Amino acid sequence: MTGGLAGILKAKDIPFVEHAETASLSTFRIGGSCRYLITPRCEGELIAALDAILGAGLSYLIVGRGSNLLFDDGEMPLAVLRTTQIDAVRRVGEGLFSVDCGASLPRLSRLTCRQGYLDLAFAAGIPGTVGGGVLMNAGAHGGSLSDVVKSVKALHIASGKITTLFNEQLAFSYRNSAFQHDKWLILRAELSLSSHATAVDAEALRRKLLAHRAATQPLDFPSAGSAFRRPADGTPLGKLFEELGLKGLRVGGAAVSRKHAGFIVNEGGATARDVRALVAKIQDITEAKCGFRPQPEIRFASER
Length: 304
Ligand SMILES: Cc1cc2nc3c(=O)[nH]c(=O)nc-3n(C[C@H](O)[C@H](O)[C@H](O)COP(=O)(O)OP(=O)(O)OC[C@H]3O[C@@H](n4cnc5c(N)ncnc54)[C@H](O)[C@@H]3O)c2cc1C
Fold this sequence. Notes:
Elements: H1 3-11, E1 16-21, E2 33-38, H2 43-55, E3 59-63, E4 69-70, E5 75-82, E6 89-93, E7 96-100, H3 105-114, H4 130-136, E8 139-140, E9 143-144, E10 149-156, E11 161-166, E12 184-192, H5 199-216, E13 223-226, H6 237-243, E14 250-251, E15 254-256, E16 263-266, H7 272-290, E17 299-300
Parallel strand pairs: 2-5, 3-5, 4-17
Antiparallel strand pairs: 1-2, 6-7, 7-12, 8-9, 10-11, 10-12, 13-16, 14-15, 15-16
Helix pairs in contact: 3-5
The structure holds flavin-adenine dinucleotide.
């Protein structure tokens, strides 16, 4: 039945390739391949592609910039639906922006700061998309997407219904949203920005936050950002892992960054198996010494 998917995508003129390599779809630069890589160019194609995948009975994975994602090493029997070509940002009112799921957060941050809004300066260095960012409730420097999302238009995959959900319906909390607890395709979001400044001041703040990141994070190595979620009591894990002597701990090509112990970095040739083994090692050491098991923030493609 899955053989029919290529025919349907071709008939609908939706771009795809078969047996695509996945490492370049993730900021970790780790992966194997996937059965199909589909790259729709608009919302209509995105919905039609998902419909075709479901009709073919194939497993799927929705991917933005892959900046919080670890693909498996071998071939995954998956159709990967990549949103990055669907990236329009429209100003629809005073402080109101309608943004497509594949729009890049750094670009959105730059665009809105240059229009004199401070609200999204925090997102300048978060290398994801609006869809991944909303699902993760991405945030930094005291801000998060839940502060600016007014509503989200999404397709509920089980029922096939497209709905607009308002902020208070989205159960946002630290790196969490309702979208993590059911299967949804996030199509676009409406953002409401209210913190005004001059374009010069907003841009200066954005650049300052980017410089802070460059000074404190291992941006010279591929990674998926913070590997673990901060625990409920707020313990900063990077600092804790440093105190536990984990900096430099490695399995194969994957290592705990020496610059920021909260990051697992690919120092060259790391496999998904290396990363998983390192995650387990860090969990075991932390549990033995501190009595709790840190939970990964990284999402594993095989578990989606
Ligand atoms: C160097 C670096 C720094 C980082 N710093 C931060 C930080 O400061 N704060 C922070 O919060 N995160 C940070 N991250 C992590 C990451 O950038 C964010 O989690 C980001 O929001 C993920 O977006 P993405 O498009 O890359 O999502 P992906 O990694 O592609 O996907 C993440 C999840 O969202 C799902 N998804 C993606 N798009 C959709 C959609 N349209 N509909 C439904 N589901 C979807 C995927 O299936 C997956 O489960 C960092 C990562 C890196 C590499």
